[in-house]
Amino acid sequence: MKTRLRPADLAREHGISTQAVRNYEQDGFLPPAARTPSGYRIYTERHATALRAFLALVPAYGHATAGGIMHAVNEDDLGRALTLVDRGHEQLLRDRETLNTVRKAIGPLTAGPAGEPAATGWSIGELAHHLGVTAATVRAWERAGILVPARNRATGHRVFQPSDIRDAELAHLLRRGGYPLAHIATVVAQVRTAGGTESLAEALETWQDRLTARGLAMLDAAGRLSEYLRA
After folding, report:
1. Residues whose CB falls within 8 Å of the CB of residue 173, separated by 6 or more in sequence, listed in order
2. 187-196 pLDDT tens trace
3. Which terminus of the chain is more solvent-facing, meaning fewer CB atoms within 10 Å of its CB: N or C?
């Protein structure tokens, strides 16, 4: 006979509320529970194993994907579940590649631009000349979201400040490395969000730690999910 468990038994193991356990069942993350004649839920070790799997999947893949994986498993659609797992690993690999790309690219930039712009900033022609590219190339980078220069209010001309030059130099390095514009835009956005190459360099270790934590969470989640599949 299967061991009967109460919602409180499942909740206590993870330090969550009994209502959270009921919600997870209602949302389809746990298999449906049987009921007593008086309407109380009857959980078993299978439900406990499912809850362990779901809660392990959340830090590894996010709440939405974790829920999708559990839905697929509970609906006997193992192919869909494994596809979601594979996509999570693909995203982690892309994030690692982006991190490595930024690390390699910011090295030559930490010393700053070779020439400082005037107080009024550089024109598109001056920036293009500095980089050895055409003005059309600079405009293409702007259209891709890589560069976001301000405009002179009187003339409407682009004005490139030191941070814009840094972004342009980074884009130039990555473009020479064969990276597509969409990928470059993502990398430059990371630099811009961090507040510059020096701030980004300090943030890289935190970024690496987060990727490592996610990778370890995926390993733990794989074990918990495998245990649930066997159950």
Report:
1. 105, 108, 109
2. 888 777 766 6
3. N
Map residue 20 onto helix, strand or coil. helix
Q: Tokens standing for 206? A: 């935190």
Q: Which residue's entry shows tokens 């449906």?
A: 32
Q: What was the pLDDT predicted at 1?
A: 45
Tell me the pLDDT band of 74, cut-offs 50, 70 and 90.
Answer: very high
- DSSP track, 155-189: T--EEB-HHHHHHHHHHHHHHHTT--HHHHHHHHH
Around Cβ 140, how many Cβ atoms within 10 Å?
A: 16
Q: Which two tokens stand for residue 211?
A: 């990727």
Q: Give the pairing of strands 158-159 and 150-151.
A: antiparallel
CA distances from residue 224 to 49, 55, 109, 202 in whole angstroms, order as listed: 8, 9, 44, 35
Does position 205 have pLDDT exceeding 90, yes or no?
no
- Tokens 């700053």 belong to which residue? 112
